[in-house]
Amino acid sequence: MKAVPGVLLLWVLALSACERPVVPVNAQINLAPPLGLPAVPLPPDSPLTQARIELGRTLFMDRRLSHNNTLSCAMCHVPEQGFTSNELGTAIGLEGQSIRRNSPTVYNVAYVEQLFHDGREFSLENQAWGPLLAGNEMANPSIGYVIEKIKVLPDYAGRFEKAFDGRGPDVLTVGQALAAYQCTLVSANSRFDRWHYGKEQGALTTDEQAGFRLFSGKAGCGACHVVGEKHALLTDNRFHNTGIGYAHSMGLPKTHRVQLAPGKFVDVEDRALDSFERPLADVGRYEVTLDPADSWAYRTPGLRNVALTGPYMHDGSIATLEEVVEFYDRGGIDNPQKDPLVKPLGLSSTEKQSLAAFLRSLTGDNVQKLAAEARAAQPADTPPEKDPASTYRRSY
Predict the structure, then answer these.
(1) In this structure, what DSSP letter does residue 299 have?
(2) How many domains, the chain?
(3) What is the pLDDT, as a whole number, of residue 388?
(4) Which residues pair with 28 in a beta bridge?
(5) Residues 114, 152: one domain?
(6) CA atoms of 190 and 365, how far apart (whole Å)
(7) DSSP-based three-state secondary structure for 240
(8) pLDDT value for 257
(9) What is residue 3's predicted lDDT score, i.e. its pLDDT?
(10) 211 and 359: one domain?
């Protein structure tokens, strides 16, 4: 009797599949950095595993982690908007409360040494609790409240224990899960990287190449947005006073773009909004160090994916890349603590266009993939049947 070739082929394929090793969900993952970035710094006591990444992604997308079950991390760090919010200069927290600063992108956040615009936190694991507990953000009353809520949500039954060797949700594992996911939001291999590091000559236009020469030379951008020999974080991870925070604190005339309807904006002077809500005080890095020299200084953002992450500056007060270039060409806003690196540049209109064109070449090749993965993790939106504060009983 002749063997049926198709059946034989299926049998061979099935046997091969059985022999392939299955990667355990708790096997440590080593992230291979894309072209243009160094190795991803990961804490040695918190290995990256698939179970932790998937758990953190679910937490990031879950609106029930806010006090009234309406606001998730992803609603200020919108995956399709560069993991920030293109529609708001400064974020809006629980029940419409104002937040005084722009939502920074979480692309490549694993490389950031001191987190938040003022550098007040030092690890992603700890940083995660800031928005969860801030009264004008997700507004949870305590760490314990968040943990008890997670314990009663069916979406998380057994998932912490699986990801953390039997350990359930607590102040450490919640932070570690959110950090694990954010560490995977690594994005590079941009056209710039392929041209500069991959030596792919056609990857940038002549205009973009001219923009990079300005960036590294006449415009002086590379002094703070560092490009190294082997990779480019495009930040010095330090803090600088450009004058924007000073102008805000001193009440100098300033306008904000206000959205009236989808696609409809109007520029309004801040003073016209005083009767609605007065601007919140903000002296930047000084609030962390109490050193007067740090007044109105803010962390240098990385510029990867910058074309996706407007509006710009710590307060979202500049809408477009062209306006950012104009601001630095003017030399920022003068004040006693202004960084000496910020000075008038004298760029021509053609040079400004080239510089903005170069900045648009910094978009990574995986941004759509990362956004799609975030949306695929959409958790349920059914809140707990009872508030955990009203049902809690100590179990020991």
Answers:
(1) E
(2) 2
(3) 87
(4) 49
(5) yes
(6) 6
(7) strand
(8) 66
(9) 45
(10) yes
In angstroms, the CA 328 to CA 313 distance is 12
Within this chain, do residues 207 and 180 fall inside the same structural domain, yes or no?
no
CATH of the domain at 356: 1.10.760.10
Contact between 150 and 177 (Cβ < 8 Å): no
| Structural domain includes residue 8 | no
Residue 203 and residue 193: Cα distance in Å, rounded? Answer: 9
User: Tokens 């740090």 map to which residue?
Assistant: 294
DSSP codes, 255-293: EEEEEEETTEEEEEEGGGGTTT-PPPP--TTHHHH--GG
Residue 58: partners with Cβ closer than 8 Å, 6 or more residues away: 155, 156, 159, 377, 379
For the chain (396 residues), the mean pLDDT of every run of 10, in chain order, is 45 45 72 96 92 98 96 97 95 91 97 97 97 97 97 95 97 98 98 98 97 98 98 97 92 66 70 62 95 97 98 95 98 96 98 98 98 94 88 86
Give domain status of residue 40, yes or no. no
CA distances from 23 to 176, 254, 363 (A): 21, 55, 31
For residue 355, being part of any structural domain is answered with: yes
**What's the confidence (pLDDT) of residue 253?**
58
169 and 233 co-located in one domain: no
Q: Is residue 216 a contact partner of residue 355, using CB atoms and an 8 Å limit?
A: no
Omega before residue 311 within 30° of 0, cis: yes
Smallest Cα–Cα separation from 231: which of 205, 196, 186? 196
Residue 306: strand, helix, or coil: helix
Q: What is the pLDDT of residue 341?
A: 97
Q: pTM, whole model, 2 decimals?
A: 0.88
Tokens of 74: 């992803």
Contact 49, 180 (CB under 8 A): yes
Whether residues 281 and 175 fall in one domain: no
Q: Is the sign of the CA dihedral 275, 277, 281, 282 positive or negative?
A: negative
Residue 26: what pLDDT? 78
Rounded to an integer, what distance in angstroms lies between the CA atom of residue 263 and that of residue 328? 27
Does the residue 344 lie in any domain?
Answer: yes
Whole-angstrom Cα distance, residue 197 to residue 185?
21
- Structural domain that includes position 96: 50-187+368-381
